[in-house]
């Protein structure tokens, strides 16, 4: 085993340069605290970008992983396994879904969702009904198909030609969808209930209700990308339940595994029938290790007291960040739902979100950005209130440094 010293500089020598990681290397975590190589402590408000839903090294997740690791790691989908079946049954019991497909990441879950939408339309209406409507500034993954459906051209640059038949409307603008949708051509409308990467922008109630109606009128499927908003992050198990608008297909990942790679596509039995034998697959999808961990996550997060606690923690964090924003004139609003929050910079500080992130690290608090103008927060759903208070104190020191 290679035990040579590891430094941030090694990244530049051995890794493809598509990331620009920070200068610290975390080596250990517990709850909502993380320690780096120098044993420096940080309060984690980033959550691995809305992934570590129960914090770091949660005893229940460690136990589930260890127990399964001693039994069975992998089979391939030539055979099924007990953890996958149990998890699928749980997801169906707790949501609108009747069928589940497992994958490893949000991008893969969305790839499956988009393929299913086209396949369903092809089977039921013919090849002409293949167009997908998505939204500007949306984000759905990094595969060629998902990055094409996503509404941020910068992520597609240099990878053209993109898959065709994809159109982008304006988020929260139902009229822009009406201009694009048609019964003859449109197979699906794809939307994030809360746009995450573009700045934590919640959909309006009337907008999602209108999308449901338009899809019904045009025989199109409504696809919710809940990769970031799902598994308790809004204070509901899935955001569609908060809105009372039920999609035909839903993608879930990130918080689903609490840090272990796993994803799921949820849909109805009628729609799922279009992904018949051999039409799609995933070598690791439904892996026993991943499903055992995800089962523990869902069993924990779906408890009413956990979801209620998300709402209480959200208010504490939102109020604290807004107070900091008002004291220093840096945030014009804090938007989002539950523990997916975006602190929008005032005009004076536009474009400088990364400065606040870096200053936060210097003060021992980890935050995220969502574009150049928004500081994003996505901590553990069970972060102790004392950790929220400590994080706010540290972040205020960071803000003071940036503003001085």
TrEMBL record:
The protein, known as: Acetylornithine aminotransferase
EC nos: 2.6.1.11
Note: May also have succinyldiaminopimelate aminotransferase activity, thus carrying out the corresponding step in lysine biosynthesis.
Cellular location(s): Cytoplasm
Organism: Marinobacter xestospongiae
Domain of life: Bacteria
Pathway membership: Amino-acid biosynthesis; L-arginine biosynthesis; N(2)-acetyl-L-ornithine from L-glutamate: step 4/4
Gene: argD
Family of this protein: Belongs to the class-III pyridoxal-phosphate-dependent aminotransferase family. ArgD subfamily.
Positions contributing to N(2)-acetyl-L-ornithine binding: 142, 282
């Amino acid at each position: 085993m290679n035990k040579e010293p590891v430094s941030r500089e090694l990244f530049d020598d051995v890794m493809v340069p598509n990331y620009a990681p920070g200068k610290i290397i975390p080596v250990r975590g517990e709850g909502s605290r993380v320690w780096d190589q120098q044993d420096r402590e940080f309060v984690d408000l980033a959550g691995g970008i809305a992934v570590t839903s129960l914090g770091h090294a949660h005893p229940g997740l460690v136990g589930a992983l260890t127990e399964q690791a001693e039994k069975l790691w992998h089979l391939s989908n030539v055979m099924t396994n007990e953890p996958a079946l149990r998890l699928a049954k749980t997801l169906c019991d707790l949501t609108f879904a009747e069928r589940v497909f497992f994958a490893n990441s949000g991008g893969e879950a969305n790839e499956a969702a988009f393929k299913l939408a086209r396949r369903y339309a092809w089977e039921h209406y013919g090849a002409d009904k293949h167009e997908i409507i998505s939204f500007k500034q949306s984000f759905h993954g990094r595969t060629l198909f998902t990055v094409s459906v996503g509404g941020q051209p910068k992520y597609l640059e240099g990878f053209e030609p993109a898959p065709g038949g994809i159109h982008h409307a304006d988020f929260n603008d139902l009229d822009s969808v009406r201009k694009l949708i048609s019964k003859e051509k449109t197979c699906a409308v794809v939307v994030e209930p809360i746009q995450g990467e573009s700045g934590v922008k919640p959909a309006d109630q009337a907008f999602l209700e209108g999308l449901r109606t338009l899809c019904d009128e045009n025989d199109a499927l409504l696809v919710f990308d809940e990769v970031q908003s799902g598994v308790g992050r809004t204070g509901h198990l899935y955001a569609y339940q908060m809105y009372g608008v039920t999609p035909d297909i839903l993608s879930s990942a990130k918080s689903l595994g609490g840090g272990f790679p796993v994803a799921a596509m949820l849909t109805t039995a009628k729609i799922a029938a279009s992904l018949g034998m051999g039409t799609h697959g995933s070598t690791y999808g439904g892996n026993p290790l991943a499903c055992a961990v995800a089962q523990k996550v869902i069993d924990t997060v779906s408890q009413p007291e956990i979801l209620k606690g998300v709402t209480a923690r959200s208010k504490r964090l939102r109020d604290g960040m807004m107070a900091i924003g008002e004291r220093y004139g840096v945030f014009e609003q804090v938007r989002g739902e539950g523990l997916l929050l975006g602190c929008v910079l005032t005009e004076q500080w536009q474009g400088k979100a990364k400065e606040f992130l870096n200053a936060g690290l210097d003060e021992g608090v980890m935050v995220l950005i969502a574009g150049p103008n928004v500081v994003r927060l996505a901590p553990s759903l069970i972060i102790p209130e004392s950790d929220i208070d400590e994080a706010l104190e540290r972040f205020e020191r960071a803000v003071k440094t940036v503003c001085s």
